[in-house]
Amino acid sequence: MYSRFIISALFAGAATGLIAGILQLIFVQPVLLHAELYESGELVHFGAAAVSAHPDLPGFDAMRDGLSLIFTMLTYTGYALIMVALMGIAEDRGAQIDARSGILWGVAGFVAFHFAPGFTLAPEVPGVAAADVSARQIWWFATVVTAGVALWLIAFGRNWAAWGVAAILLMAPHLIGAPEPDVFTGPVPTEIGALFAARAFGVGLAAWVLLGSFAGYFWQREGAHADATANA
């Protein structure tokens, strides 16, 4: 059981992290590098002259981008450990776990870890005004936990009381509100900030769907292998 859990999480997390890292390098990193030009003051919009929306950006950097890929693989391996553990609990309760059902697990993971906190605390490009980072981290973790519990209650709850508690948990962090800056001072154009948020959500959804499907596939495969070994 323990090896099934570790192998499923490692393979699913590493494969997903590699794909997610490549998607981030293609779609997200150029937006970040563009925003950094405004953060550093190299570009300034609303000046006397029009500013090109397509500046020259740094190309591939083996050290920077290689470390980014490794960090992304480690991050999604951590997510996979959580997801596979929950899949094991759900399977004990009678749920069918495979690559197809894993897609739903992936969507739920995206909602809990990306969409729910991002609904009020949107993804931020460099150079924008923001509240204290510790306060934002506390709010982010609390929102992820409440959203995760709410989604579990929606999926496995058996009565309206459970679903009602789930609705309250989903709304509570946003009714309380996330930490916000006192003033807006960011120099980055809103078009770049909006594109960054859209790309972050899009890549996040793709990565979580892949993570759920990979985790379901490897969990089912390792389970079948363990059964075959036990019956041999």
Characterization of this structure:
The protein is an all-alpha fold. It has six helices and no strands. The chain has helices spanning about 1-40, 60-90, 100-120, 135-155, 160-175, 190-230. Helix 3 (about 100-120) packs antiparallel against helix 4. The longest helix is centred in the C-terminal third of the chain and has 42 residues, at about 190-230.
Features:
single chain; mainly alpha
Outline of the structure:
By secondary structure, this protein is mainly alpha-helical. The protein contains 6 helices and no strands.
Write down the overall mean pLDDT.
Answer: 92
Q: What's the number of helices?
A: 6
The N- to C-terminal Cα distance equals 17 Å
Secondary structural class: mainly alpha
Keywords: Membrane, Transmembrane, Transmembrane helix
Protein name: Cobalt transporter subunit CbtA
Pfam family, one: CbtA
Transmembrane segments: 7-27, 67-90, 102-122, 137-155, 160-176, 196-219
